[in-house]
Automatic annotation (TrEMBL):
Family: Belongs to the RRP1 family.
Pfam families membership: Nop52
Keyword terms of this UniProt record: Nucleus, rRNA processing
Signal peptide: none
Name of the protein in its database record: Nop52-domain-containing protein
GO aspect biological process, one term: rRNA processing
InterPro entries, per the entry: ARM-type_fold (IPR016024), RRP1 (IPR010301)
Compartment annotation: Nucleus
Length: 275
């Protein structure tokens, strides 16, 4: 789009003055939720650089929480779903670019921001009846690209994969809170990035975190923290779907042989228990 249609938000988003940053966030929302908010990659990168440092400047916990909520909710207000996903991709592009520069005092608040954005992104999928789920999945996992689950891109910090593994089922459960008993979710498709990572990663810690944080939680009959997921897909169906998708991914010639063996053993055990 024409540069004169883009508000000069970057310097205001990164201002030392909270009043200016708050005003810039309001202008950002107004701009991105308008019908003329198409951005190319360069324009998106400039905006996200400003947003990143806007969040960097927020030091008080309540201010951080409100800002994380306000920023992530913009995803749900963007009228065009393609623009919405471009905004979410820009979030990950910027976060991966800047992650190594974060000090330990700021990590927790950015982990919170990731959580808020993940929940909002899943809500976009729910509101879209999961028609754009493939796009969401491709943002989470591009094996060789800047994505949080990329297992072949050494630029992507493993800590992002670990954190996403820890929070995915929790945020999926929250995103489904307003659905009714008849609502169905495409669980196999939702788990595609995770099953692909399990089959291919050479990072043993990542394998363990994904397996325990995503797979084990979904097949645990005693887990009471995923009641909204359970109403959309029952335990028996979830176990069957998971065994099938893990077997399919492990069967691919590109799978890590060690992971293939472990996944085959798990699938055999799961199917024996369910027979």
């Amino acid at each position: 789009m024409d540069n004169d249609k883009i508000p000069p938000l970057g310097k205001y988003l990164a201002s030392n003055e909270k009043r200016e940053r708050d005003k810039a966030i309001r202008n950002l929302r107004n701009f991105l939720t308008s019908k003329n908010s198409n951005l190319d990659d360069l324009e998106s990168a400039k905006l996200w650089r400003g947003i990143f440092y806007c969040f960097w400047m927020s030091d008080k916990p309540l201010v951080q929480q409100k800002l994380a909520w306000d920023l992530s909710n913009i995803l749900l207000e963007i009228p065009d779903v393609d623009n919405c996903w471009n905004f979410y991709k820009g979030f990950w592009d910027e976060l991966i670019r800047e992650w190594s520069g974060l000090d330990r005092y700021r990590l927790d608040k950015y982990y919170m921001l990731i959580r808020k954005f993940l929940q909002a992104a899943i809500k976009v999928c729910v509101n879209d009846n999961f028609n754009s789920l493939d796009t969401f999945n491709s943002i989470l996992l591009n094996p060789r690209g800047a994505s949080p689950l990329a297992y072949e891109d050494h630029r992507v910090p493993a800590s992002l994969t670990y954190h996403m593994s820890d929070i995915f089922t929790d945020e999926l459960n929250k995103a489904l809170a307003d659905t009714d008993e008849s609502y169905e979710i495409p669980l196999a498709q939702l788990l595609k990035p995770w099953s692909q990572l399990l089959a291919h990663t050479r990072n043993n810690v990542a394998y363990k975190r994904v397996f325990e944080g995503v797979i084990t939680k979904l097949i645990d009959e005693d887990d009471e923290d995923i009641e909204n997921i359970r109403k959309c897909v029952n335990l028996k169906e979830a176990r069957k779907l998971i065994s099938n998708i893990l077997f399919e991914e492990a069967s691919k010639s590109s799978a890590n042989p060690t992971n293939r063996r472990k996944l085959y053993e798990f699938v055999d055990e799961l199917r024996m228990e369910d027979d």
